[in-house]
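Hi everyone, sorry if this is the wrong subforum. Our group has a chain we'd like a structural model of before ordering constructs, and none of us has done structure prediction before. Sequence below.
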Amino acid sequence: MKKAEVGNIIEFKNGLRGIVEKVNENSVIVDLTYMENYKELDLQERTVVNHKNYKIIK
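Answer:
Right subforum, don't worry. Here is the predicted structure as tokens:
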């Protein structure tokens, strides 16, 4: 499995998307404000996603 890099857009957990801000050993920190409907979903601005739980979009 290829690990995401800073600046990649990833998709995880039922279609949520975000921009990778930091890559850790076992996870990435993702900025969710990338999504157009971010405010409607009532989510935190950032979240942590394990490398096993996402796919790289671009």
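For your construct planning: Residues 9-56 form one domain. The chain has a mean pLDDT of 95.
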